[in-house]
Write a structure and sequence with these properties.
heterodimer; A: 323 residues; alpha/beta; Rossmann fold; Alpha-Beta Plaits; six-stranded mixed beta sheet; four-stranded antiparallel beta sheet; disordered N terminus; disordered C terminus; B: 375 residues; abc type-2 transporter like fold; 2 domains; four-stranded mixed beta sheet; 14 helices; binds adenosine-5'-diphosphate; binds magnesium ion
């Protein structure tokens, strides 16, 4: 099994486009992923995340553009790519009537593993994902979070250097999500490169870099910190308490750029980054909301995402002629 | 065949076997259906006349008319259910479905015979039940001819030409339906089961999304097709064994030819049917649609166009053309040849070749239509 060659990016995507008939699901997307990196792909349902991943795995033929995965052109050699990658598809697709070990045997065999090597790897990944004690349990009897870990085990059985995970934690409880992410981070520490999609904003914080996908376009791609600094300018405050007021009346106060309901209160953004919590309290007082509790707030990726979506032009789903 | 090919096909086949073992419904269906169908068809679909009751209107009442009735009932094919005086009294029996056959011997029948004139007896048949009446007609006509020949010979008008020996039924002397039906049933059962089972299992992988996971591995299309088919080939061979054994034990249908040839032909036929099943599910990608299309495309032609129940030679041109590319048709010919006639390769090679061609074509087409990609 050959690993990524040279020091260049492990994944190199340029102008990657996928059309289904007249509908453009992925529109001229370009990015690079470097060895040992976790790249998170964030976006609403239907944004085109799965379509992008499927093209990179050689499962869908791109309509236009190029994608080099571990140096292999996915349009020209989709079969070659498949030997180099691990893929966990969005829909849970283990066989529920097979035991954990039988699923591993099957997917190992599909990857061409057999005999002693398969047994050793099977044992190793079961241990790695903490399912050794359940190797003979019917997969259908495993709780959702455990099945997800088994699916991951199936995807890394052949020791790929590159892992594509499509919404691996969808529909799983928060505790299982965290333990799943610990597994993924462990793989990355051992040298695996990971491209993972999610629609849980909080999970993006686990990623080295985050791409935001909106309507088939890659709207932004950077480290979480850089995205926040660039896309959520000004300052963010949490306003709550007995006199927090109504959204409309808050938004009317001078200097307040944006108000978002949050819990019992609001997230308020001031356009001027030099405005402090004290200034805001004064303005609220003046507007007839005395005694509101105001806390400084670090913008979350949620805010970043909303910012991107709102600043986005109306969806352009008709096939466009590239400029 | 590379090592990788064998590993991947082995993994697919092993997984499929586990599915089958864990899902008892498949086993019930695979072993239960042949038994049920064989018993159903073996007993219910019968072309034998066994004491078919008829209404007798003997207006002649001479020794000659009585001899005609005896000739008809002597073989146990017919039996007199009711004696009537008026031919018109027969119709109510037809209308109420109590009888399907009536025999009218008009006055003067015996006298005419004695004078050496043409004597006529009338057979009344309920045309609404075409099958029964045509069989009855055939029997009755045979009896009538035999009687005529006997009478002619007696009057010296016709020498003993040995006419009776001219018609001889080979291979199925008793004209037993079971001998005729069991070979066709083997084909029907194999066709239905094979198409249905594979259509279901491949479509299930599409529906459940595991096909996508599978295509993200280096598994090739032909490996999926072969790996999927192998376990069902094994099941199909067990079914053949079951039906042949039951046919022999319960319905006394012999296998006069080579068992090896029979199983070889069954293997070719199975491959074609399994390939058809894979093709259907590759195209439909949906269990429900695949089941319906699979059932229709396997059952109807096999029952109606393969020569199983009705001879292909009597069909209109269009249907004969369809039958010509129907593997069941060739398989039934092989089975009848091997089981009843003791035919060997020398007679059967064209049929075997047709089966092989269909099998290869189906596996090739389904592999070609099998898109490894999802779009
Ligand atoms: N095979 C296909 N044929 C037609 N449209 C498709 C197909 N696959 C995906 N789409 C459409 O492309 C868009 C992007 O889908 P997808 O990549 O699955 O989004 P995401 O994974 O971000 O939720 C959706 O509107 C979806 O309906
Ligand atoms: Mg998706």
């Amino acid at each position: 099994m050959s690993g990524p060659t040279g020091a260049g990016p492990v994944i190199e995507v340029r102008d990657l486009t996928k059309r289904f008939g007249a509908f453009t699901a992925v529109d001229r997307v370009g990015f690079e992923v470097h060895a040992g990196e976790i790249l998170g792909y964030l976006g609403a349902n239907g944004a085109g995340k799965s379509t992008t991943i499927r093209m990179l795995c050689g499962l869908l033929a791109p309509t236009a553009g190029t994608a080099l995965v571990a140096g292999v052109d996915v349009s020209r050699h989709p079969q070659k790519v498949k030997r180099l990658i691990g893929y966990m598809s969005q829909r849970f697709s283990l066989y529920l009537d097979l035991s954990a070990a039988e699923n591993l045997d099957f997917f190992g065999g599909a990857q061409g593993l057999a005999g002693r090597r398969l047994r050793a790897r099977s044992q190793a990944v079961l241990e790695q994902v903490g399912l050794l004690a359940h190797r003979d349990t019917r997969t259908g009897d495993l709780p959702g979070g455990w099945r997800q870990r088994l699916a991951l085990a199936c995807a890394i059985l052949h020791e790929p250097h590159l892992l594509f995970l499509d919404e691996p934690t969808a529909g799983v409880d928060p505790v299982s999500r965290r333990s799943f992410w610990q597994l993924v981070r462990g793989l990355v520490r051992a040298g695996t490169t990971v491209l993972v999609t999610t629609h849980y904003m909080d999970e993006a914080e686990y990623c080295d870099r985050v791409g935001l996908m909106v309507d088939g376009r890659l709207a932004a791609l950077d480290t979480p910190a850089a995205l926040k600094a660039r896309l959520v300018p000004g300052r963010l405050f949490d306003v709550h308490g007995p006199a927090a007021g109504s959204r409309g009346r808050l938004a009317a106060i001078a200097g307040i750029q944006h108000v978002e309901p949050f819990g019992a209160g609001f997230h308020v953004r001031m356009a001027d980054p030099s405005v402090g919590a004290g200034d805001l309290a004064g303005r609220l007082d003046a507007a007839g909301f005395p005694g509101a509790v105001i806390d400084d707030l670090e913008p979350s990726l949620e805010e970043v995402f909303l910012e991107v979506v709102e600043g986005w032009p109306a969806p352009a789903n008709a096939p466009e002629v590239p400029a | 065949m590379s090592r990788g090919f064998l590993i991947r096909v082995g993994a697919l086949a092993r997984k499929e076997i586990i599915h089958i073992i864990r899902d008892v419904r498949v086993i019930y269906m695979a072993l239960g259906l042949p038994v049920v169908m064989l018993i159903l068809f073996g007993y219910a679909v019968s072309f034998d006349l066994d004491r078919l009751p008829f209404a007798l209107v003997d207006q002649d009442r001479t020794p000659a008319s009585r001899r005609l009735v005896e000739a008809l009932t002597g073989s146990d094919s017919f039996t007199v259910a009711v004696r009537l005086d008026d031919p018109r009294a027969v119709e109510p029996y037809f209308r109420s479905n109590r009888l399907k056959v009536g025999l009218v011997i008009p006055p003067g029948f015996g006298r005419r015979l004695q004078r050496g004139e043409v004597a006529e007896a009338q057979l009344l048949l309920d045309g609404a039940d075409g099958t029964t009446t045509s069989i009855a007609l055939g029997y009755a006509a045979g009896v009538g001819q035999a009687e005529t020949r006997r009478l002619l010979a007696k009057t010296g008008l016709l020498g003993d030409l040995g006419l009776r020996d001219r018609v001889r039924l080979r291979f199925n002397p008793g004209m037993k339906s079971a001998r005729f039906i069991v070979p066709g049933l083997i084909a029907a059962i194999l066709a239905i089961m094979a198409v249905l089972l594979t259509a279901l299992t491949v479509a299930r992988e599409w529906e459940r999304g595991s096909m996508e996971q599978l295509f993200a591995t280096p598994v090739r299309r032909v490996e999926v097709v072969v790996g999927k088919l192998l376990p069902y080939v094994a099941i199909g061979m067990v079914q053949v064994l079951l039906v042949v054994a039951m046919g022999s034990l319960v319905f006394a249908v012999p296998v006069t030819g080579s068992l090896g040839l029979l199983f070889g032909a069954a293997l070719l036929f199975l491959l074609g049917m399994l390939g058809q099943g894979v093709f259907i599910s590759v195209v439909t990608r949906n269990q429900q649609v695949a089941t319906q299309v699979g059932l229709l495309s396997s059952m109807l032609p096999t029952l109606l166009l393969s020569g199983f129940l009705t001879p292909v030679e009597n069909m209109p041109l269009l249907l004969r053309a369809i039958a010509a590319i129907l593997p069941a048709r060739y398989f039934i010919q092989v089975l009848r040849g091997v089981m009843l006639k003791g035919n060997g390769l020398r007679e059967l090679w064209p049929d075997l070749l047709a089966l092989l061609a269909f099998a290869l074509a189906m596996v090739a087409i389904s592999t070609a239509r099998f898109k490894r990609r999802l779009d």
